[in-house]
UniProtKB/TrEMBL annotation:
Belongs to the ABC-2 integral membrane protein family. Keywords: Antibiotic resistance, Cell membrane, Membrane, Transmembrane, Transmembrane helix, Transport. GO terms for molecular function: ABC-type transporter activity. One of its GO terms (cellular component) is ATP-binding cassette (ABC) transporter complex. The lineage of its organism: Bacteria, Bacillati, Actinomycetota, Actinomycetes, Kitasatosporales. This is Transport permease protein. It is found in: Cell membrane; Membrane.
Amino acid sequence: MDRAALAPVIARTPLARLRWAAADGWTVTLRGLTHWVREPGTLIGSLAFPVMMVLMFGYFFGGAMQVPGGGNYREFLVPGMFVMTMVFGMGETVTAVAADKNRGVTSRFRTMPMAPSAVVVGRAVTDMLSSLLALAVLFATGLAIGWDAHGTLGETTLAVGLLLLLRFALVWAGIYLGLLMKGPEGITMVQTLEFPIGFLTSAFVAPSTMPGWLGTIAEWNPLSSTVLAVRELFGNPGFGGDSWIAQHALLMAVVWPVILCAVFFPLSVRRFRNLTS
């Protein structure tokens, strides 16, 4: 048998290479979706955790919380939990990427006749689909406990778009960090840091209730801009503020993720290309 006839045909034209990359990226995405079916516990756990957070903060602590300008604390909380769910997803990205790298799966992919972008693109698509599912579950939970989106359909759609834009940026941060990790200790450190980074925002309490210097840090946390922007778009209480960053939350909810993408996307691509093991 002629071995040349069995060799894969490498795309040459830009359009053919794009189709090749899309097909290979979708194949890797299907691999991730297959893991959901074969290991549903991981997916269920990732969906249940933010729901439990909403219920705990909404019912255990909600009665003691004061919303700036008045209003229902659960309506204040739920948009913040949307953002926190996007943040928690980064830990899942880091874990999945690091596991593939450390088990040699990524190196195996790199020896195969597939588009170089397929591995990272497939991971990104899988995680974005996971985030859409998590948002749907959290939306249903919010509606069940009394939260509602009071804005127009366009404003609600824009709010969801901002949440997914933030998640997209965090996907690339997670891919890069996952490619750096060499052991479970590093993964645990990243997952642990999600909590102080996420809590040092306006997601759970208003920065005005914090000491001055800490409130300023919380306001300038990139996550806070998305929190404030989606609260405003959903028509929920607590989106106001006197500082420049609070007054321009909608703008910065776009700028911060774009900056994160500009930093971590090229770092992820370069790190993937330079992997030696």
